[in-house]
């Protein structure tokens, strides 16, 4: 029995090892021969396979040529009409990276999605596009403590680009919420907007606001955050997987960046690329309740068999 268990364990170990080796070789081959723009686009428009759609959108989002106009239209289409939450979430990420200031409203509207992953990507993308018209859609999500703390944290970060009184009040309220990550994100945005630092003391922030005539700075110091870490040992071993990090930048739509991004892609979409046709489910019309005899009013006597017809009706 012990020998049988050992044999089964070794077989499982070898199988899992083969899967890992196969995955490594697959990553090795794909890094030297990455998908072409046409291949990524083909995956993105595969309406029969949401996983292919998600992978294709992810490739487009991370590619320098993902800002071509046909791809921008694809992201907007999936945000508006695709029903798969992962595809919608990756489309929001792509639009946040490659879209224009005119897309800020579409992104902000996704903050009320029933799917957490969609709201999270919308909150992160709000820091990359700037439009004062969306402020009143964004800050209420910060003060709603029923929202996930990760999402409120990203919203607090995004609000650091909007010098308005309502944003200031929402950020001050957020520094007193239960989650430390939300507190610190709100504090950082307050410091960016005002140049002041009163820590996590709400009363000091509010008192300062009452006594100053110029609460907000005029210069644009806000940069959307990006992830960075130092190289680790395995990063040098897996040399075929390049480690590149995006630099922080100014949101599109601000005075210094302009309303549109500058497309610098080296590849243009193929002439064969076409937007997919999404089949919308047919609206279900609720069945009307069957009309039966009207029940007699409370206290009314039931009609007898020789009752007279109502006034205006024709008798037998």
Keyword list:
globular; 13 helices; 316 residues; 0% strand; mainly alpha
Largest sheet: none
Give the rounded overall mean pLDDT.
81
- How much helix is in the residues? 40-55%
Strand residues, percent:
under 5%
The dominant shape is: globular
Ranges where pLDDT stays below 50 over 5 or more residues in a row are: 8-29, 294-316
**Distance between termini?**
93 Å
From N to C, what is the helix and strand string?
A: HHHHHHHHHHHHH
Chain oligomer state: single chain
The count of helical stretches stands at 13
The helix-and-strand class reads: mainly alpha
**Count of distinct strands:** 0
Report the radius of gyration as a whole number of Å: 29 Å
Tell me briefly what this model is:
With 316 residues, the chain is an all-alpha fold.
Describe this structure in words.
The structure is a single chain. By secondary structure, the protein is mainly alpha-helical. Helix content is 49%, strand content 0%. It contains 13 helices and no strands. It has helices at 2-32, 37-44, 50-62, 69-81, 85-98, 104-109, 116-125, 135-143, 149-158, 165-174, 180-194, 202-211, 233-237.
